[in-house]
Fold this sequence. Notes:
4 strands, globular, mainly alpha, two-stranded parallel sheet
Amino acid sequence: MYGKIKRLIDFVLSTCSLIVLSPLFVVLILAIKLDSKGPILFKQNRMGIHQSQFKILKFRTMKIDTPQDIPTHLLKNPDQYMTRIGKFLRKSSLDELPQVWNILIGQMSIIGPRPALWNQYDLIEEREKYSANSVKPGLTGWAQINGRDELPIHVKARLDGQYVERMGFRMDVTCFFKTILYIVKREGIVEGSTQANNDIEMTDRIE
């Protein structure tokens, strides 16, 4: 029953977000275009519900000559590839805003396990143990407010499983407002963290 309500909430909130945030989108789009050559968005293969793949959308944060499909932390000098506006976008998490579209069309939910990269086989396998691949991935989730980038994979997967077990309106509201608090306080975020290779941001795929 909650699944239908959750989808309705996702649709309404994502639609409202696109309308309300449209001025911010315009500003960020102009900033990205003026800062460096290349497309505004980049697409990346991520794992959706039942291990189906979809293209996640993000604002481009790296230069077009960046080696593709390489985790940021594996680049010899990642800062040389990051655009000036890109550094701000990642630190503020504003690069994630285009995922509102993924939510609107039903590929993602506002709350749920963060979508794994297609080649994060260890995380996908661990999540399978907890049925965490059986729900739509989210913009934020239970694991994100309990450690985010600092979590090892087995802990992250277990927390994702806990979300599935407790999924409901109260849980989603808790995750939503605690995420806002974490973004403001900048807690639990390690850009390009090598620890457990969890939720690693690959270099931008230019398409």
